[in-house]
Amino acid sequence: MMGAGLYSLLGLASSHAGSHLPLAFLIGAIAAAFSVYSYAKLGAAFPSSGGAATFTVMSFGPGIISGGINLFQYIAYLIAAALYAAGFVEYTNTLFGGDLSPVLLKCITAAIILICTFLNLLGPSLVGKAEAIVIALVVISLIVFSAMGIHQADLKSYHMTPFSFEGIVVAAGILYINFQGFGVVTNSSSAMKSPQKELPLAMFSALILVTIAYLAVSTAVVLLMPLNLIQLDNGHVLADAAEIVAGKLGFIIISISALLACAAAVNATIFAASNIAADLAETYEVSSALGNSVLKSKLRALTVSSIGVIVLALIFPLSEVGQMASLAFLLVYAVISYGHLRVHKQTGASPKILWCVIAINLSLFTALLMNTIKAAPSSAIALLIALVASFGLEAFSLLKSKRHKLH
Questions:
Q1: Contact by Cβ (8 Å): 75, 297
Q2: % residues pLDDT > 70 (the chain)
Q3: Are 182 and 35 in contact (CB under 8 A)?
Q4: Backbone dihedral region of 61: left (phi > 0), alpha (psi from -120 to 50 degrees) or beta?
Q5: Terminal CA-to-CA distance of the chain, rounded, Å?
Q6: Contact 42, 186 (CB under 8 A)
Q7: Which residue has the higher pLDDT, 124 or 31?
Q8: Whether the predicted pLDDT of 306 surpasses 90
Q9: Is the pLDDT of residue 201 over 80?
Q10: Rounded to an integer, what distance in angstroms lies between the CA atom of residue 255 and that of residue 102?
Q11: What structural domains and CATH numbers belong to the chain?
């Protein structure tokens, strides 16, 4: 759940929130807490490797609605993985002084995605152990950087930028992808001995820990670096901030931790995407578009997922794919929590809290969408096409299967 977007999206978020970056993270964390409540209740009641894909089926029943949502959710995971792959390439280029050719960067993009796809074939146990080691190293490096950064910061020369509520909300929407990992956690609920106890504990403790880390890191960055430099460095802000704190060694350590975090995030997100596809194909006849010949096995699901991530990572720049990922998940979480209202008696969730989840997610989605339409209309159009295509493909697929049965 330690979001790789932390390394990649600080510059973009600061262009809206200014020096109020920690506040944007805090708002994102509060919004995520409501969604975590909804997902934890659903995951405990309906444990499955399909995670949120299972929740839609339980809430809306088999058909075009659940199938369309799950197809769009599947695409959302691919977009998120593309963001993390783009972040990996950004920091790779930074480590080599920004001198790598565009062709080589595209090759590195494809390579890291294929490596993570291969790792997923080795099984969840080995992947889980590797992820635990990687994230432990990442967290330690971030804590040390934050402590040293805040200690070294010259508070007398620090100037706070003007407060903009709209800018902070937009930044919170952009940074929301950093908390998206809680959705991936639900995909492991079927492997838990007692998901009713373990899942909520895992999700809320993770949210608290990453929020503390994000607040500490973002505070250190805004205290250490002037705003124009944060925005100039954009995709590799943390590496340059670490260089201020500990010279070339700090730069290298944070860059390597960024590579580890991004690789771990690519790996975990491809795992979640392929699990959604494979679980739907094997367990439910809900998404014939997902479940026909294309995604019938884990290997096929992983192959299709990795190809999709490679295409997205090569087409869209880091900032645009970051906005698309946050927009997609804000919408998905709102819709799934709306579906949760239909089964709240089975999960024991409070309808009032679920309505709060819907309102908060849609508010952040609207603020970010309005900004994206102005700043990067191609991203908004691409996401709309993905949404329409998800339901269109599902409707076409179901219609085709009905005709097949009639004949």
A1: no
A2: 90
A3: yes
A4: left
A5: 48
A6: yes
A7: 31
A8: no
A9: yes
A10: 20
A11: 5-406 (1.20.1740.10)
CA 244 to chain centre: 29
Query: For residues 202 and 285, which has the higher predicted lDDT (pLDDT)?
Result: 202
246 contacts 134 by C-beta, under 8 angstroms: no
**pLDDT tens digits for range 374-402:** 988 988 898 899 899 888 888 887 777 66
Res 289: pLDDT: 55
Query: Which residue type does 330 have?
Result: L
Neighbouring CB atoms inside 10 A of 57's CB total 26
* Contacts within 8 Å (CB) and 24+ apart, 250-258: 250/145, 250/148, 252/95, 253/141, 253/145, 254/141, 254/145, 255/91, 255/94, 255/95, 256/95, 257/137, 257/138, 257/141, 257/142, 258/4, 258/7, 258/87, 258/88, 258/91
CA 358/CA 59 separation, integer angstroms: 15
pLDDT tens for residues 102-137? 899 889 989 888 888 787 777 666 667 777 788 888
Distance CA 18, CA 261 (A): 25
Contact 300, 294 (CB under 8 A): yes
Give the tokens for residue 4: 């790789």
Tokens of 398: 């179901």
**Burial environment of residue 75 by CB neighbours within 10 A (0 to 12, 13 to 18, 19 or more):** buried
Place of tokens 């975990």: 268
pLDDT, residue 376, reads 85
Taking each helix axis from N to C terminus, what angle separates 21-45 and 165-175, rounded to the nearest 10 degrees? 50
Which pLDDT does position 286 carry in this prediction? 47
Tokens for 162, please give them. 């003007």
